[in-house]
């Protein structure tokens, strides 16, 4: 009898939902169709929050912008990832209030403290912002990325297997995007560098963020490929996916991604030589210092290069340092100069988090403008994870994000050199190298305001912290 009542209730609710949905569709209102999915994830969030978190990881490369579906909508989010992350944040806070407990070793970890400083300064400069609503929205979006993908993820990574699951979910979704992108590119010619800029839509806004994510995950893929305890079938499939990624990286025509890949290989050599992180930082500072001392000679040499970006690999590589005629490079310099001029006008508080794209136009000089310059805040940001915060949150804004980067690398170095487990050592190394590609890429582009980059970047940091706190002392058989 109870079973029959349940069936009747189920059918009644289903019929009611279909009727309500048809009514709203007749009114050109389609949002109600998402209700079952929303309810499903709310239910899953209460009983298995870790599964929802991993689902977000898989959906991230496949997410689309809300304004691509509803162009006139005033609020923009990435679907379905950001609504899910907001829901996870809400459920996590509720759970925290009910339990009153979170692992203190994570809360007081040096990387966590660096993140508090960065978030605190973003919050403070939102009050002094020239556009407070924009800045507080930027702050909230950073919160709904950091808390689920860093703090909550550290608890997910208490099980080492979940670290690999996280990586594979993102990788599998990227394989779908690679197939879609290159199928579209083939229609214009695989050597069509211009088409590579937009065939990644709607999953990625352009080829630069797409290339950055491919390179970020090539190192974890290499770790899975070289691991000895895998079966022949699994190793063959991993090898195939690795080749697909190499193919995708080449056809992305993303010069910054290629550069970050080679720089990460250089970092791999330094780590293998057991060079201390302090030495690496000093070397970077020396190189930067030499650039400023010799910048006139360096710029004169670079201006002699007139190679344009194209489908020919050799010309495309040479165009990386063309600052005489390559519009992409010149526009990047234009954005950097604007960021520095904005900083000079508001050096301490900055213009406000997230406001660069709305405020930089008056700081463009006529002789710096290019054929792709715009005044309408519609073609990207400061093109730097470091100069962007400098303009938006002043000198402390840039220093706070540099502190986060330093602590992430320090954590990875500590685990790599201190763990007795070869397995943990190798896993840490390739996570660190993957993370390094993003922050090297960050000198030339900035994507931390998107789910595509924020989910893996904060996730990789959580992996390093979890490896140090929960797994560093584990002895593993190799």
Q: What does this entry look like structurally?
A:
The protein is mainly α and 478 residues long. The protein has a domain at 48-66 and 82-283 and 382-471. Helix content is 69%, strand content 1%. The chain has 20 helices and 2 strands. The chain has helices at residues 2-26, 35-47, 49-59, 66-69, 81-99, 104-107, 110-127, 132-156, 160-186, 207-226, 232-252, 255-272, 277-293, 295-302, 313-318, 327-345, 356-359, 387-418, 422-441, 451-471, and strands spanning 64-65, 78-79. The chain has a two-stranded antiparallel ribbon with strand order 1-2. Helix 2 (35-47) runs parallel beside helix 5 (81-99), helix 7 (110-127) packs antiparallel against helix 8 and helix 9 (160-186) packs antiparallel against helix 20 (451-471). The longest helix is centred in the last third of the chain and has 32 residues, at 387-418. It starts with a helix and ends in a 7-residue tail after the last helix.
């Amino acid at each position: 009898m109870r079973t029959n009542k349940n069936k009747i209730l189920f059918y009644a609710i289903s019929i009611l939902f279909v009727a309500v949905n048809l009514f709203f569709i007749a009114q050109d209102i389609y949002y109600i169709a998402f209700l079952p999915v929303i309810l499903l994830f709310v239910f899953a969030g209460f009983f298995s929050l870790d599964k929802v978190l991993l689902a977000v990881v898989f959906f991230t490369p496949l997410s689309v912008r809300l304004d691509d579906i509803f162009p006139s909508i005033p609020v923009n989010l990435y679907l379905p990832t950001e609504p899910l992350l907001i829901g996870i944040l809400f459920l996590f806070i509720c759970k925290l209030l009910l339990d009153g407990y979170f692992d203190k070793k994570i809360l007081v970890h040096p990387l966590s403290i660096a993140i508090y400083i960065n978030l605190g300064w973003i919050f403070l400069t939102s009050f002094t912002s020239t556009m407070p609503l924009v800045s507080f929205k930027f702050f909230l979006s950073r919160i709904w990325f950091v808390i689920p993908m860093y703090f909550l993820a550290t608890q997910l990574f208490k099980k080492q297997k979940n670290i690999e699951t996280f990586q594979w979910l993102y990788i599998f979704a990227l394989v779908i995007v690679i197939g879609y992108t290159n199928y579209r590119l083939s229609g214009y010619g695989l050597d069509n560098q211009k088409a590579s800029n937009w065939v990644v839509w709607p999953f990625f806004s352009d080829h630069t963020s797409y290339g950055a994510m491919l390179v970020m995950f090539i190192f974890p893929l290499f770790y899975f490929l070289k691991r000895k305890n895998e079966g022949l079938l699994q190793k063959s499939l991993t090898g195939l996916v690795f080749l697909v990624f190499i193919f995708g990286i080449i056809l992305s025509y993303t010069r910054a991604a290629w550069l970050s890949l080679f720089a990460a290989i250089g970092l791999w050599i330094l780590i293998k030589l057991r060079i201390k992180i302090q030495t690496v930082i000093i070397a970077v500072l020396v190189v930067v210092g030499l650039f400023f001392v010799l910048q006139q000679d360096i710029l004169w040499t670079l201006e002699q290069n007139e190679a344009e970006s194209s489908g020919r690999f050799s010309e495309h590589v040479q165009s990386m340092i063309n600052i005489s005629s390559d519009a992409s490079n010149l526009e990047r310099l234009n954005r950097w100069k604007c960021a520095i001029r904005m900083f000079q006008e508001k050096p301490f508080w900055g213009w406000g988090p997230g406001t660069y794209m709305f405020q930089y136009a008056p700081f463009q000089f006529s002789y710096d403008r290019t054929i792709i310059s715009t005044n309408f805040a519609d073609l990207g940001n400061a093109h730097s994870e470091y100069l962007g915060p400098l303009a938006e949150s002043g000198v402390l804004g840039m220093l706070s994000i540099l502190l986060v980067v330093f602590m992430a690398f320090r954590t990875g170095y500590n685990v790599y050199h201190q763990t007795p487990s070869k397995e943990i050592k190798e896993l840490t190394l390739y996570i660190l190298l993957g993370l390094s590609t993003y922050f090297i890429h960050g000198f030339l582009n900035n994507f931390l305001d998107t789910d595509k980059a924020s989910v893996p970047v904060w996730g990789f940091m959580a992996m390093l912290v979890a490896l140090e706190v929960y797994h560093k002392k584990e002895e593993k058989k190799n």
